[in-house]
Sequence to fold (254 residues):
Amino acid sequence: MLKRFLGAFAALALGLSATAARADEVIVFAAASLTNALNEVSESFTAKTGHTVKPSYAASSALAKQVEQGSPADVFASADLKWMDYLTKAKLINPDTRFNLLGNTLVLIAPLDTKVEKIELDAKTDIAALAGSERIATGNPDSVPVGRYFKQAMERSGQWPAVQGKIAGTESVRAALALVERGEVPFGVVYGTDAAISKKVKTVGTFPGSMHDPITYPFGLIAGHETPAAKAFLEFVRTDGAKGIFAKYGFKVN
Fold:
């Protein structure tokens, strides 16, 4: 009788342990531009593994600073290499786990009802003249990746001195998108994937990739947070199913 009871108790304990393992939570700090795609990827991951995902979306710069200050996170997904390198150098990212997963495009957007037609953007396009007396919304060019890519494009074409004073710098690419959606500015510079998810703006031009560094999204585990669930999540985002979701939202998949 005692042996049977102990056996039943052990089975129950194992069952509870397995349930607890399935219920592990993965905290993901991810670039704001990943919001829609990563939400869907996370839902698919949870359905497949039982692990839940708690995402926090913001500019990569802001998230990197939060990690540096000790905010709890398991996975970091940046919209550029700079902030992943920043945390890696600070030994806050496990370098053996990081990889480059996605790419994107840099586009010029305008409110949906604008009369501006398609523009073939290149190094000779006078962006300052296009904006006129108005401002161009994009991420803060000193820290937010999308703003930094735009600044690079303007510097390489010799236009930054003229454009610099016309920037409406925001705390993230989605904040820049919102300014254009509300018609508060006539133009914005965001990623192609952000423009694609909005029904209130239209893409009027795409910056050639030669005008800025490749838009790269590296993923990696926060040092000391290499849990089985976090490792499983990093493995999952590289599966064909997850890559298909990212591609559906317009990301270039490596």
About this structure: The mean pLDDT is 92. The longest helix spans residues 2-22. The chain has two domains: 22-103+215-253, 106-211.
